[in-house]
Amino acid sequence: MGRLVSFLVVIWLVIGVVAAFQRDYFSDAKTNCAETSNVALTIVAGPLNYVGLNPKVKCRKVDVPEPSK
């Protein structure tokens, strides 16, 4: 039973990687919060991408204090 679950999880993630590749998420060099999150979410969503789910993440900018000079 454990092997079957492991196999299904691997197949699920492979389908997610294919979906992310088809959306050209790996073609550009942008590495910001939203881009990285969209790639990860697309991979985790896996086959759901092919039934119309289009996961997107918006990261808000957090104001952090600047170091004193």
Can you characterise this structure?
The mean pLDDT is about 80. The chain is built from two helices and no strands. Helix 1 (about 1-20) packs across helix 2 (about 35-45). The chain is about 50% helix and about 0% strand. It has helices at about 1-20, 35-45. By secondary structure, the protein is an all-alpha fold. The protein has one domain.
Shape: elongated
Strand content: under 5%
Assembly annotation: single chain
Tally the helices: what do you get? Answer: 2
The total count of strands amounts to 0
* Rg over CA atoms: 16 Å
Largest sheet: none
The first-to-last residue Cα distance is 60 Å
Q: What key attributes describe this structure?
A:
mainly alpha
Give the helix/strand layout.
Blueprint: H1 2-22, H2 33-45
Helix pairs in contact: 1-2
